[in-house]
Amino acid sequence: MTGSRKPAAFRVEPQPAASAGSPREGDNTSRPDRKPRALDTAVVMPAEIDIFDEPDTIAAEPPPATAPRRRSILGRLLIGSLGVLAALAIGLWTDALIRTLFERAEWRPMLEAGLLGWQLRASIEVSHDGQKTSRCTTPPKDLL
Questions:
Q1: What global pTM score does this model have?
Q2: Which of 1, 68, 87, 106 gives 20 to 30 Å between its CA and that of 144?
């Protein structure tokens, strides 16, 4: 695109109203009526049982609402404390792993810590990918 082109404007004149005797272009009033051929093969058969006319489905009551199950406060505390304990154990294990690797070689722990982080990221991606219920299978519109 060049920047030298100026915006242009033009008028659109309204079309004159057509008289009743002269058909406009694209108007089908001048053609004789014909029988549609595509509808000859359609046969409509009413169903024997109309499910929308059944009185018992209309008058049926919804099932009663049930209260959510109450969980004990001790159970919630137990699960929370086990989660904290597992996080601390993983942290201490990672610290011990890096310390022992530093003792053997100076450059290896950095590489292996990076690989450990990469593995953790990949495992999180896999776990989140399994939780998705549906995926978009249609390509983006710009590729069509």
A1: 0.33
A2: 1
